[in-house]
Amino acid sequence: METSSAMAPDIQREHWRGSVALKLELHPDEVTTVPPPEPLFVLAPRLGYLPQVAEQALEHFGSVLPPGEDEVWFEYQGVPLKWHIPTGSLFDLLAGGRGGYPWCLTVHFRSYPRDALQPLEGDGVQASYFNSLKEAAYVLTGSSSSVMTLTKASQQELWQNVLEAKDEEFFSNLSKMDLTRPTRSRIPVRVYCREKVFDSFTGWKSVEYASKSVVLDSEDAEDLTLRGVLQRCLGVSLDGEAGSGREVVAAGVELESDTNLANVYPHLKNADMWLYLVVRPSSRA
Amino acid sequence: MDSPAPPEKVVVLLKATGDAPILKQSKFKVLKSENFVFISEFLRKNLKLDSVFMYLNSSFSPSLDERIGTLHEAYNVDGKLIVNYSTTPAWG
């Protein structure tokens, strides 16, 4: 590894502490008062999920809502946002690099778009997180048993560490599981690639998605570079004219095309043990 | 580098778990380019279920927008993608 190991905990800490500033406005259809409520400014953890700020939003907007059941969802450019993607990656993918900060989102508490989003019930975010962690465990160790055999109490503790972005406690809890001692030399990588403008016409159709279990002991070093992985994963090229129009970001940091992912993974992986890569149109173009 | 013309279809094995109804035929060839949601729609239609829970290798549920080809490449067992399905959550 080229990165000095002394710096590693610092990078990890900064990665875990990262937030996205959000400006939330209640959708006009759900406003019952004149004047309408003020927008809510809130910091959403990058490694967390959007519904985490729901409670704060409900406290702020709750009094003006029409009668009915509260089901929170978020909208950007007229498109409902998938809540199971970590907030930081959503921001990097859809809004990052285009200026405009804080990130302005519309929040809804009524008419959940069931045709566009997976339903969010009870501890749905937690369940989605653990499912993702299980999948990562399968890639890392060849079995999900390290996550499946967690007791309810240790699951709660781990989840609380994620919600509060406490990386030290999280990794100390995690070290009790076999996840930190991978038995197979593979790393789990999720790639989101946006080629076009994300708006109400294109929506999620403008985003391609693939996950990949990247084999580390490949003989060809090129297989481990960002360029190689993206090429094999989604057929996305970082070379030539097409490549110069794209940029790749992990945890808000732009990566060079010859970056070795094995070096990036330990520092910039998310709380579900996946490395999230975002490909988007270059902001320099 | 991958060869440009890999086989277009992969073998998917559907296994019932718990009290889920059993399919007459459990092995299928599915286009690599289909998304995982295709399997859920297939099961719901053929078994007349309102909802179905799906797991790979008796452990985790992949995202519905994952491609079959990608899942097969990462998680196949002896060349088959094994999907366990049930009517209630199974492997929590």
Write structural notes for this entry.
- Chain B: Belongs to the ATG12 family.
- The complex is a heterodimer of chains A (285) and B (92).
- In chain A, β8 (246-250) and β9 form a beta hairpin.
- In chain A, the strands form two sheets. Chain A has a five-stranded mixed β-sheet.
- Chain A is an alpha+beta fold and 285 residues long.
- Chain A is 32% helix and 21% strand.
- Chain B has 92 residues and is an alpha+beta fold.
- Chain B has one domain (9-86): Phosphatidylinositol 3-kinase Catalytic Subunit, Chain A, domain 1 (Ubiquitin-like (UB roll), Roll).
- Chain B has helices at residues 37-47, 68-75; strands at residues 9-16, 27-31, 53-56, 80-86.
- Chain B is globular and about 35 Å long.
- The model of chain B has no long low-confidence stretch (mean pLDDT 87).
- The interface between A and B is medium-sized, with 21 and 18 residues.
Give the mean pLDDT of chain A: 88
Range of helix content of chain B: 10-25%
Strand sequence of the main sheet of chain A, in spatial order? 2-1-5-3-4
Order of helices and strands of chain A: HEEHEEHEHHHHEEHHEEHE
CATH top level of the largest domain in chain A is: Alpha Beta
Estimated share of beta-strand residues of chain B = 25-35%
Gyration radius over CA of chain B: 13 Å
- Sketch the major β-sheet of chain A: 5 strands, mixed
Integer count of domains of chain B:
1
Instruction: Please mark out the parts of chain B with pLDDT under 50 across 5 or more consecutive residues, or reply none.
Output: none
Write out the CATH superfamily name of chain B.
Phosphatidylinositol 3-kinase Catalytic Subunit, Chain A, domain 1
Approximate helicity band of chain A = 25-40%
